[in-house]
Amino acid sequence: MSNEAETQYNPQCGVRRTIFSDEYDFLTKIESVCAKEDGIHFLVRTWKDRIATVRITFLTPSVFRFVMVPEMTAKSHRQTVVEDVLESEFETKNAEFTENEDLYIYETNQLSLHFSKNYWEMSIYQNGKLLTKEQAFDTNVDNRWKQLPTGFRVDASGKSIASFEQFVLFSDEQFWGFGEKFTHFNKRGQRIECWQKDALSTNTEDSYKSHPYFTSSRGYSVLLNTFTRSSFDMGASSWISYQMGSDDPILDYIFLAEESKDYKKLLQQYLQITGQIPMIPQWAFGFWMSKCSYMSRKEVEDVVADAEKFGIGIDVIHIDGWQRQDMSGVWEWDTERFPEPEEMIKELNKKNIHLSLWNYPYLQEDSPAFKELAERGFFIKNKEGHPAMFKATADSEFLCACFDFTNPEFLAWYEERVKKIVRMGVSVIKTDFSEAVPEDVVFYNGMSGREGHNLLTYLYAKNIYTWMKEICDERGELPMLWGRSGYVGSHTIPAAWAGDSSSDKATHSAILQAGLGMAMSGVSFWGYDLGGFYHTGYTGNEERPDAEDYLSSVQMGLWMPLSRAHGKTPREPWQYGDLALKNVKEWINFRHRLAPYLYHTACQSHLFGIPMLRPVVMEYPKDPMAKMQNLSYMLGDSLLVSPAFDREEYDLYLPEGQWRNIESKEVYEGGSFVHVETKSFADGGTSLLVFQKEGTSIPLLAQKEVMHVPATAWKREDLDFMTFTTTDITEKIYVPGECGKVEFIQVEAKKNA
Question: Is the bond preceding 495 in cis, omega lying within 30 degrees of 0?
Fold first, then answer.
């Protein structure tokens, strides 16, 4: 790649110095335009005197799709998140096309798109006000572009191999989303790459679940409609523009707008085009117990027995190492270590404990099954046609190959094995790994690794979830995954956890940034490893965290949508001393009592697309201070949660209204800051505060000691209410129905009960 600048004259742009001019081209001026049934079509001249077509289609009055296709486009097996124009009550013909001396105008009753006749630049107006626009001239004083305008990158033959878009960056604009990113919640000033990786802890820019989707504080969202590697420069290189691009030779994105800057409504629009959030079982909102790994049936039974002895209610127990190591991935029990697994599952179910099992989509080279499955063509291949071999993680001692989820014959074989295990009574499948497939591989359907790397993380989970659903439907149950990797659309495959997190307090805040990003990306059912998967101190990651870090991690995790304790070493609360056992026992009991509220909040996700964990700005979009809050969050409509992390003291912002500390019962006036001083658990302190919003009523199970989330639906007489209101109120509470269906009951709650 040449780094030399080239000075050129272009009739539309005048004298400009291009960067990497031999490899880049971009739109300059409209040659012709035509309004058709599927939208408006432009023929646009490029800097290097080529032609590109641009098609813009309104999907709804406030949502449009932008597709740019250069005349010379490299052959690809491109996959898109949204394939076709969506069926809706709105039809493209209701968009009006007009022109005047300076502009082409394409508009609905909500959005107006203006296209300059002098040079290519699209401006987006909402009710007569500029919402945003493409930034055609982000240049220095010597006319050198800092960011190139809408265009593409070419190979030696001149064919487009990548594409990019550039928008103006307003001085106070913030950006949220991009899936699970462990960097600051506000992504302004950051460079983002959407290429799934094993992040190996949470103190990193790498990500298991990158989503090429973001929301602007100005009230719009953008979905880059591709599975290829994508990148975003959100003001890291320029103060006046941001840029997005991908390895897709075609620029394809969907633009969504919401006039009121109601980020819930904006997210609802996004979910309408990418898929609604399915409901998960009620028991999932209880406490999950896991370790890497319980290695025998006896060890599982011993953990269950200890939990009963210490009064810890376990709703789900998870086993990583249920298969022989050299056969992991082929869905066969190691019956020497786990004899009579069906009997074990039944015994667990009798105790109201559900079983979760680990899986990964790889098979190591020394597996007895490897040769046969390779001969059947079940693995992703290298360019020579052999199974592509790689290390599953950076520290792996062996090579493995990845199953090819685009091969129909493999899928038929795999489906049979998955269903056999699920029919035994397994409730959850943990879909681990899938982020390590190299770029230079070839899939069965012809995709390269560059095209299929991200897509694989979606197909892996989607297929297993679909097969599970068939079996669960027969049982009148809801399916559930526990997924590490994912992509846009993974919100339709619940649920997800934040990969291999760290145990120290400082990185707990990084985990929260990831959760807030997932919420803004439409993912509701999410959690992390309580206690931390790794202990990343100087003593090594195989060591246990100290009690303070452990308790801090567990406490915050029990105020998340889903709560699973998991680590390289034991994470059972009785392993950390009397103080830890006492605290965690109380916290788990309260979480069980909180199940009606958690379930109700989950139903809001399922029915209306509103995530359980919510950034403060989502709940208070008009509050300018809410945009700044990334170390506290809302859990549902009524609760604000403030972890201390590694802070000895801090100032907590409470939005408008009154707020009551649920533990101390102190009441605070909102729209102001509360000074918080913390002290250690050993000194009787806590690492987390929870506040209830005035005018709300939190449904709880009335029973004071609750060991499990009830298997049956709760009724009005089963409920108590934590009410913070000056008047009696009547509310609709969503409750579990038969076969996983959602029902609701009308309840009356007394003031300040």
Answer: yes
